Amino acid sequence: MKRSKGKYYMKQILDFIIDGEIVSTGKLAQGVGLSEKTVRNKLNDLDDFLQKNRLGKIQRKPRVGIWLEATEEQKKNIHTLLGVQSDFFVENYNPKERMTETLKILFNLWPWQTISAQKLSEKLYLSVPTTLKVLKECESWLNVYNIKLVNERGRGYRLESMESEYRIALKDLIMDKGNVQAIRENLNYFFANLNIFTMEKCIIQAENEWNYHFMDESFYEILIYCCVAYKRKEFDTPLINDYDKEELEILQKYMEYDFTVAIFKELEEAFHVKFSEEEVVFLSIQILCSKFIGISEVRTTLGQVKKYDNELVEFVDRLLSVIGNILDVDFSSDQKIKESLIIHLRPTIFRLRYGTPQSNMLIDFIKKEYKNVFRASWAISILFEEYYNLQITEDEIGYIVLYIQAAIERRQQKYKFVIVTNSNMGHVQLVKERIRKVIPEIRELVIVSTHDFRLYDYEDADIIISYKEMKEKDKRIIVIPNILNESGMLALRNHLDSINSKLKKRENPFSPECCLLFSPELIFVHMKVRSKEEILSFMCHKMCEKGVVTEEFFDTVMERESRTTTAIGNGVSLPHGSPAEVNESKVAIAILDEPVQWDNESVEMVFLLGFKMITKDEINRIQLFYKEYVSLIDTDEKIMMLKDMKSNIEVYKYLIQ
Q: Sheet holding 523-527: strands in order across?
């Protein structure tokens, strides 16, 4: 059982006034972590409760304060009602809220402080055994941030973590419910002695001066980080660890870094304190990952990136080249996709490096609706490792897929149609209207009589439609005897779809260059396994036996699996290990008799990639593999065909035929 949140705060207020001490509304608000308006409402409820039960009353006097007017006997009865075993202020339980309250107590401890299970149970108004169960729930929450809940014998519990991880976790805890009132109540709880209003004014002042305007969510995140920076400014704990000096030099040249300096300058003047360089670096990274409304000119930001971060520009060019090569799409002249990715990837790299990953609620939709683009984009995970030594997550890849898909749709071909006919004007107009409804890709539609048609007059035409065979021979000509009926329109639509198709079907799944990646000894059919760990361990062991990877390859594969799923839809998984543990680029394949659970999906076919990308030939071969791999598994029919093969030799022959 658990106290309701409202009654819990009424109990907190009673704790302040039970001895008859006169307190102000502001002091009460700071003490219990609520706004003054909320405290006044709680006092009304509490006064009603006390008078109804003849336990005294709440007295309030302007410019004097608030106090409890009660006899000693009434106070004794109130103390009895507030006992730990009492069912006073008790109703149905919300386990998440109970865990949140426990975390708030733990995060509000100073680094040198501990709290015993007994003391914690008293604060929570729970029994000790129940409190210990709650602490177990807290451990699971803390593990996400690599924070340990340490129990020191004879002293009690405390949190142990890196300072940056502590701050990110505290920010998430304060932001947990997402609504402004809850966030402000949490701010008052954690920073009771801090003038939060002045802190807000400093940030807003910097926003106005720099024309940077945070979205609400990001504003409160930055406000929290500023409050934490002030509260923990005297602690001698590293805030930024193992950052690259060259990367820091690039960071310092971005406007966001100078913007952060401006924020701290406002804070230093308002609070008469000095913040460290590490505080500036940490907050500037968070601001780089923030969401802005109308953040200065995009051109200015792009200019900075191109001026100071040539590696990012080169990376985006390479990324578009790799994905474009796989999808048979030329992005080289699309400046919009290039600039969009530069803007998107700049904070992405900081998010990945400093542990603030971005979740993607659309990932399941993206994998289903844009599966070929998603699979092609998976190739860039190796590029991230090569350029930045980072492991990109499935969620982040999903965002990149949206940019790529948008670029593909933006460049969708618009065609010029020429219809050669001797029909009357009424018939011609009807044909034009029907075609425009069925074929949205039309850029221009020209009607010309058979008598007047000359092929050389229409060299810019993409499709030439005729009612009968023509003496001219040209691959653009399609004969449709009656284009107005359903079969005629269907023939035209099918013809256009075949032109639109970017992924050309091949009789041979892979080109001779990619065949070097396969070996019959690394193809396993009719496998019977119980888990993804079991099949990956088996495959890595076989690759190690063949000498194509080291013994440590399996550990790097599992490390990636712990960070993000490698299931890519259609019952297929595409895991890979670190290129540093690969001796020779190879692909191991396992086809399972029964699917296994792979995070949140079922998988029955595993392609384990062991790739190294040192020479130009190796890089070209890997890119070509991704390009041809997409068409290998793009339909259920192809998946079933592979599953029906009886031996590893049969699969191997199919792949290299």
A: 523-527, 586-598, 601-610, 572-573, 567-569
C-alpha 343/C-alpha 492 separation (Å) is: 41
What are the structure tokens assigned to 154, written together? 């004879």
3-state secondary structure 384-425: HHHHHCCCCCHHHHHHHHHHHHHHHHHCCCCEEEEEEECCCH
Element (H, E) at 59: strand 57-61
Q: What are the structure tokens assigned to 611, written together?
A: 């790739």
Angle (nearest 5°) at CA 14 between 13 and 17: 95
User: Tokens in use for 145?
Assistant: 């941030």
Distance of CA 291 to CAs 44, 165, 212, 298, Å?
Answer: 40, 21, 10, 14
Q: How many residues are present in the chain? A: 657
Cα distance between residue 251 and residue 245, in whole Å:
10
Instruction: Read off the tokens for 7.
Output: 């009654």
- Amino acid (1-letter code) at residue 430: L
Locate the DSSP E strands across 422-493. 442-449, 463-466, 477-479
Identify the helix (H) or strand (E) that includes residue 572: strand 572-573
Angle of CA points 277, 356, 158, to nearest 5°: 80
Rounded distance, CA 398 to CA 370, Å? 10
Q: Which of 412, 354, 356, 367 is nearest to 574 (CA)?
A: 367
- B/e letters for 490-512, b = 16+ CB within 10 Å, e = fewer, are ebbeeebeeeeeeeeeeeebbee
At 48 the pLDDT is 82
Quick: pLDDT tens for 91-113: 444 678 889 999 999 999 998 89
How many helices and strands (H and E) does the chain possess?
29, 15
The residues annotated as belonging to the active site are: 576
Q: What is the rounded distance in angstroms from the CA atom of residue 30 to the CA atom of residue 8? A: 15
Q: What is the mean pLDDT of residues 543-548?
A: 89
How many whole angstroms separate alpha carbon 235 and alpha carbon 590? 53
Kindly state the percentage of the chain with pLDDT values over 70: 86
pTM: 0.48
Cβ atoms of residues 31 and 16 within 8 Å:
yes
State how far the Cα of 510 lies from the Cα of 418, in Å rounded to an integer: 38
Q: Is 187 exposed, middle or buried (0-12, 13-18, 19+ CB in 10 A)?
A: buried
Return the closest-CA partner of residue 495 out of 483, 511, 506. Answer: 483
pLDDT digits (tens, 9 = 90+) for 617-627: 777 788 888 88
pLDDT tens per residue, range 263-287: 999 999 999 999 988 888 888 877 7
Tell me the one-letter amino acid at 482: N
By three-state DSSP, how is residue 605 classified?
Answer: strand
Amino acid at 250: I
CA dihedral 269, 270, 275, 280 (to 10 degrees): -90
Write a three-state SS string for 368-393: HHCHHHHHHHCCHHHHHHHHHCCCCC
- Cα separation, 163 vs 276, whole angstroms: 14
> How sure is the predictor about 357, in pLDDT bands with cuts at 50, 70 and 90?
low
Q: How far is 40 from 76, CA to CA, in rounded Å?
A: 25
Q: What contacts 262, CB < 8 A, 6 or more positions away?
A: 206, 209, 210
Question: What is the spatial distance between Cα 434 and Cα 567, in angstroms, rounded to a whole number?
Answer: 43
CB 374 within 8 A of CB 569: yes
